[in-house]
Amino acid sequence: MAHKKGQGSTENGRDSNAQHLGIKLYGGQAARTGCIILHQRGTKWKPGKNAFRAKDDAIMA
Fold first, then answer.
1. Model pTM?
2. Domain spanning 21-61: which CATH class is it, in words?
């Protein structure tokens, strides 16, 4: 017989951190230099005029 009660299962007790992906500024909104326009994984969207793609594929002004 066990002398201590068994510990509860922790198999499902975890969650990943939020990615915070998506569009941060929409059409018509002003963006200052260095401002993040959107976060993405891969190159789903391409940077336009006066914008560039950062190392993590974010598009910045």
1. 0.72
2. mainly beta
Is residue 8 predicted with pLDDT exceeding 70? no
Residue 18's alpha-carbon distances to 15, 22, 44, in angstroms, are 9, 12, 19
d(CA 52, CA 55): 10
Strand partners for 53: 59
Which residues are bridge partners to 60 per DSSP?
A: 36, 52
CB 21 within 8 A of CB 39: yes
Which bin fits 50, alpha (ψ -120 to 50), beta or left (φ > 0)?
left
User: Which tops the pLDDT comparison, 40 or 6?
Assistant: 40
Give the integer Cα–Cα distance in Å for 52 and 37: 10
